Every structure is written in structure tokens, then in C-alpha cells.
Amino acid sequence: MGRYIIRRLIQAVPVLLGATLFIFAIVFALPGDPIAALAGEKRQDPNIVAIIRDQYHLNDPLLLQYWYYISGIIFRGDFGKTFAGVPVTQLLAGKLQVTLNLALVALVLEAIIGVVLGLWAALRRGRATDTAILASTLLLISIPTLVSGFVLQLWLGVWLKQVTGTEIFPIAGATQGIKSYLLPGFVLAGVSIAYLTRLTRTSLVETLRSDYIRTATAKGLSRRRVIGRHGLRNALIPLVTYLGADLGNLMGGAVITETIFNLPGIGNQLYQGVYLREQPIVVGIVTILVLVYIVANLAVDLMYAVLDPRIRYE
Amino acid sequence: MSKTSLRTSPAEGGLGDEPLLAVEDLHVEFATRAGVVRAVNGVSYSLNPGETLAVLGESGSGKSVTAQAIMGILDMPPARIPKGEIRFRGTDLLKLSDEARTQVRGQRIAMIFQDALSALNPVFTVGWQISEMFRVHRGMSKRDAMAKAVELMDRVRIPAAKQRVHDFPHQFSGGMRQRIMIAMSIALDPEVLIADEPTTALDVTVQAQIMELLAELQRESNMGLILITHDLGVVADVADKIAVMYAGRIVENAPVYDIYRAPAHPYTKGLLESIPRVDLKGQELYAIKGLPPNLLDMPTGCAFHPRCPYRQDNCVTDAPPLYGISGARNSACHYWREVLDGDPR
Questions:
Q1: What 3-state class would DSSP assign to A96?
Q2: Which of A13, A23, A110, A126 could cross-link to A286 by cystine, CB 3.0-4.6 Å?
Q3: DSSP calls for B189-214
Q4: From A229, which residue of chain B is nearest by alpha-carbon distance?
Q5: pTM of the full predicted structure?
Q6: How does pLDDT run across A288-314, given as a tens digit for each residue?
Q7: Residue B143 located in a structural domain
Q8: Interface confidence (ipTM) of the complex
Q9: In angstroms, what separates the C-alpha of A235 from chain B's closest C-alpha?
Q10: Which helix H or strand E contains B227, and what residues bound it?
Q11: Alpha carbons A220 and A222: distance in angstroms, whole number
């Protein structure tokens, strides 16, 4: 097991290098001059511009620039500075926390709602409840985050507050602890909830058809025990994969949700970084996201071995 | 006379002679998109303590469905039991409440399945799965139940049972897995054990060991054994009596010796002739011509008539009843006398 983890981590190195180089090159290719953008409408002293360009190695070829950047990370843990002089690590530290909170709230909501609805539908297969749940997942999949975000903001944020007189779901900012994340978390999780519901339903229905479920019934166990112990334990295995991989998707998808709910997370920052051609910010965020993906996938694979004894790594 | 000869009716011998298990005129049908499939059409058989009944037939003959109806593990719907009785010690199981039925299932009537790898839960240890019987049905503590599991694994002769009790099903060989399945099924000393093709997925040498084990366990506990199989070789060794099924009906039932000596139904005869024999080496193997009927579109009259070498005109129009031949012997063939006497071909 230990060797397996090490091998997987070594495999992650070229993935990280490749992803960062790719993003670095894309930002490099973007039109516009970041130094000119610094001064806005004002006229700049060509000498100062030249000094700044030199300081940030902007005149060097792409690969050399990339080498300066990546060697800083590897040898000094230095993710670079913004053009305004703020270290990227410092800039992102607090924002990463916000996005992580948002993604985790979304993941928990997804897991609870998706699994409960999916199991419910599976146990009522072919009946009205099942059909209703399936239809609502289709609806959920079809509504873009932009629409659901604003609509829920209006209904649950504004109208509900007017009706009840208290603010149950804050609609902007991250100042009220977990409460601030409930509504954006749900919006962010929306489509994933729908997919997980369907996946859970299918997985349990498939599992309940297997021979060992028939055996469990033949042992004279109650239906509750047959489904709850013998069925669920097997049906949950594929869901773990999906949830693990989805953590990365949720963090990436936070860009839009953070903008709608004005949450100061890395999604928001990524948008500004691209807009201002702040290479270190964009690449820094992408590196973090790639790391999250890699770690989440590794965690999923390790969970797999715990959940399914037939899988052993070595 | 047909069916009544299968059992001892209360009028003849009183309740004391009621068999351990009696299936009486059982019908099972499945609702499908294409129509209603009548998988079991009036099957009757009975079983006494210590007795082994072999139920023979091709896939789709209804032998497994009958067994699942006895166990009460059919999915209903789509399955339906429109008619029939399954009496266990005189009580019709089909009239019991779900709860009362659950008390019988697994504890008094147990079942083992064909493919032990898929029939055992892959994510629990074999010890957990065996001991579950004691924990759930006998309220034993985990530790006591696990000790019982080791005992049972010893009893079905799994080497190093104490060490292997914490292994998972996939870590065992096919034969060992089937032993675990058997250990689980006999955990609570059932009175009836149904074995649905218990050796089909196994090597021939292992098959013999498993059959031997079943026979031995049966001798020790005097349980009734229903052995569902399509392997005539297995049957000859262990069965006391045989019920041959075709297209959801019993076409012949008889003590095992009678059937092997002289079958009284053309289908049974065909089955026996299709066993490979050393003295006929080099000759083409005999096969019953044609295919089993489509249960959605059954032939008129006798279901076997399109494949039958003894066919006469009335076979196409009249379904034969189960004719009584002698004692416990029946055949659903209008021309059973001709079949008994010899070969028309």
C-alpha cells in the first residue's frame, strides 16, 4: 500500500508540470500588456516599464520564463508575486479557504441529498416517487447555474427574508460562517446532486439484482437488513469515486457561483487574474486545482481498497 | 388418480403421514412485456425427512422457479402464484404472513445456489456471513457467533478454518466457496435443504466431494434434500427419487432405480441416452432433437410432442395427465407403455 501511494505521487509530478506549463503558455499567448494595464489611462515612463519588464522576465522566451517560475516553486516554495508586488501565496491563502469551504459544503449537500433521493427512487422503482425524482433531476441538470443562482437568491434570499422577517439564507459575502455557504453551496452542487441521485438509484437497483442479495433473502434476513447491510455496502462503492472526482469539479465550478454570491474565493480571483494577465495568480490557482484533483483521486482509489476487499494495490 | 398418488392424503393415513414438504399443483407465472410466461404449470412433489429428491430438467423447465417459490424468494411482481400449495409440516407456506414466512426461510428451509462466488457477498468476510445467521436468528454475540462459524467451517472440512474465517469469498477456490455456502445454509439445522445446481460451476473431482459432503450432512441431520440438477450422473449416486420437469410440468417421477432401469417418458429416455458412454466411444453423441419450447408460445397438447419420437396424432391435441404406473411412479405420456417396452426408432 505504501509503495502504491509513493508511485502514485511520483506519477503526479509530470501531470503537475504539464498542467502548469500548459496554462503558463496560454496566459503567455494572451493579447495585451500587463504592465500597461498597471497604469491604467496614465502615460508610463518607458524606462520604468523596461525595468519592470526585466524584473518580471517578460522579455525572455516562454520556456525560460517558465523555468524561472517553476524553479522558484520547487526550490524556494515561492509562487511568485503579482505585478502589484503581493506574494501570490499570501493573496490566495484566505481565498483558498473560502473556496474550499464552498466546495465542501456543496459536496456534503450533494452527498446527503443525492444519496437519499437516489436510494428513495431505487426502493420505489417504477412508481410515482421514482418518476418524480427522476424528472426533477432532469430539471436540475437542465438549469444553468447562472439561472438557478439568481432565482434562488431572489426566492430564498430576498423573498423569504421579506416574508419571515429574518435572514435565513444570506445572499452575498462570506461573513456569517457556514450560513453564508448554504445557498451558494446548493447552487454549486445542483447539477452534481442530479447526477449523483441517478447514479445512486442505478447502483442500488443493480446491486439488488445480484445473487448475493438473493442469498441474503434466502438466509431469512429482514428486507431492511438485506438492503441496509448487504445491498447498501456494495451500492455505495461507485458513489465514492464519483464524489471524490467531483470535489475537483466543484472547486473549478466555483468561479461562477462565487461571482453570483460575491464570495471572495479563488474562483473570483482566477477571473481577475485572467483579466489582468497576472500569470503567477492564474498558474498558481490552476496548480492548486490540479493538486486537489490528484489528491482527491488518490484518496478515492485508497477508499476503494477499503470498501471493496477484492481490490488490493501493490 | 394422477396427483393423489404423489402424497399420502389425510384420509388415507392421517396427519401423521403428512410429508415434510409437499408441493401441490403449483403454478407460477411471470408478467413480462411480451405476455404472461407460465414458468410452472401444476407441479406436485413431496419430500420426507432424510430423503433426497432430484429435480431434473433443462434450463427453463421451471425447476429453479419451483425451488424459489418454496423458499419464498421470487420477486413478486413480476412473479405470481395464481394456484397451488406448498405445505411444510402441514402448513401452507403461501398462506403465511411475510413475518411468519421469514421465520421459516433460512432457518427451517435453507438453500444453496449454483455459483457460490456471486452468491456470497464480496465485501464481507466468510466468517461474518456465516455468523450472521447466529447473530440475527439466535441473538448470539459477535464472538460466540464467530466461534460457531469456525465450527461450521470445520464441519464442511475447510482446512485451517480458524485462520480462514476472516478471509473474503474471492480468496477461496470454487469448491471451498461452495463449502462455505453449505456451511451457511446448514447453520441453523434446517429440516429441508434445497441445492440448486450446487456443483455445476465446479471441476468434476470437486463435484464429487461436494455431493459426498451433502450426503454426509444429510445422514447426520436427517434433513430432506431437494437436489436441482441437469446432471444425471450426480443424480444416480445420491437421489432416492427423481422428478423430471419439462416446460413447467413434471413429466415423470419415480424412484431413482426405476428411472435408470427403464424410463417411462420419452423425454427422460432422451436425457438418459444423451449421457456420454465409454462403450459408445467414437459414435456420435445422442441429442434430443429440437429445442425446449418457448414458454410464451407453448405447443398444443403435450408440450414435448414436437421433439418426441413416440408422437401420435392425439399428442398434438390432448395434453396427457400424469398417469399412475405403479406405486410412486407416474408419467405424463399417453404412450408410456410403449416407452417402457422399447425403442420405436
A1: helix
A2: A23
A3: --SEEEEESTTTTS-HHHHHHHHHHH
A4: B124
A5: 0.80
A6: 888 888 888 888 888 887 888 887 765
A7: no
A8: 0.83
A9: 11
A10: strand B224-229
A11: 7
